[in-house]
Amino acid sequence: MTVRNPRLAPGACVLLAVLASACASVRPAPPPAPAPVRELEVTATAFNSTAAQTDANPTVTAFGLHLRPGMRVVAVSRDLEAMGLTVGKRIRIDGLDGDWEVGDRMDERWTRKIDVYFGNDVDAAKQWGKRRVRIHW
Question: Potential cystine with 104: which of 11, 75, 77, 124 (Cβ 3.0-4.6 Å)?
Fold first, then answer.
């Protein structure tokens, strides 16, 4: 049995049915595109968790992270932190394998600089030295 609405003009039910089926086929908007990968050329040095290179508590970073040899951690200058390289952010460093995690903050005097953690391997840190690298995040 078809129930008719006395307020609708003849044929209006057909029009409503067509509109309803058209609305059912509308797809939701696609998800937003991922944020573009940022990259920047910076000066990179190396550091170790030794009292001679930092302070009396060389295994604790400015963010409170407890360093252990083998961790892939970098310290960043504060201008890089302002660009989004905050604690826990993963970056790639040209010339080094894998991902590295922001885990420390450098003194205010540095700009466009990262410090790569080499655990207790002072010789590897010296071999790395100071160089210009491109980072990606």
Answer: 75
